[in-house]
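Exam revision sheet. Question 4 asks you to relate a sequence to its structure. Input first:
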Amino acid sequence: MPKNTTADVVIVGGGVIGCMAAYYLTRRGLRPVIVESEGLATGASGFSGGILTPWAASNDPEFLALGKPALELHRELAKSLPQETEIDYGYDLKPYLRCVFTEDGAKRLKEWAADRVKEGVKADWLTPRQAKSVTPWLTGDILGALLTEVEPTIDSYRFTLAVFQSAEKRGASMVSGRVTGLVSKGRTATGVRLGNGGTISAQHTIIATGPWAGEASEWLGWQVPVRPQKGEMVYMDLAHGGHPVPQVALSAWDMGGAITPKRLSETIIGATRDDTTGFSRAQTPEARDHLVAQAARLSKWVLDAKLVRHTACLRPYPADGKPFVGRAPGWQGVWVAAGHWSVGVHFSALTGKWLADMVVDGKSAHDLGVMDAGRMAHK
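Answer key, structure tokens:
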């Protein structure tokens, strides 16, 4: 790549949000350039649990209402992307049992279920006996469970790879480098400055750097309200103990812990949420043992399993629980798409499509006002 070059749009960050923005931009005829300092999906995008659900972050009704159009976009992608790229990213829909162990938990989960039913989600309350008839893996002493079947799982790395490869076929590119600042005329950005002294000129810059979004605060003169949160997971060969591979996802809704079967990988036990370690991605035996103990509350069969992998990644944790998506406060030509926390893969398509619509048309059929990037700057 020449030291100084141009692009229709420059995207800072090669995770699922940046790649999805590139995907939809190419479908509008633009040729974006992604700048990535480490590699495609090397952060949370490549190591997340890959559960497509809006219900793992904010409970804001406006935010949750965006979950349905986000899922619709994923259904469309699940039909087109594997055919186009020949990458099977494991899109799979299995039943999900949210289990409770306490009276208070049962009360709160039933209230939560009532809200989902109002949204049009089919959610069935099951007695312990009914829940255990759904899967032999559920051996814990539960008080009840909620059965749903609306949250697909995917392999998040393969998904991001498929998205990028599709965008690349239509003119997107990715370059290795580190963005150190904006090139601007007053408060209008005209591109980015790279660590090697070069520049990429573009009318639009999208900052999609996940937990590292705070590094852009100095460039923007605005403190981006996103910080890292470490999440650890373990992968287990649950058939090792002679038990069948689970076909139902389980979570201890009021106590913590989850068992998530995946079509293309071992079953996931996870995940932790650690706000104390900064940018450390170190795996810890304490987290591993904690995850196994939580999962064993749901199923004693976990104790017969074989640990085959242990991962840690950094989620982009937003100050108020909702992503920051939109124009950077006080700037023209700069967009922020950060703070998607544990729902980044789920909302990646909706975020990417909205950004492409706004860059090309200045408007979108989707209203992402609840994610307004400047909402905290306005307070």
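Marking note for examiners. The chain has two domains: 4-84+156-225+320-371, 95-148+232-317.
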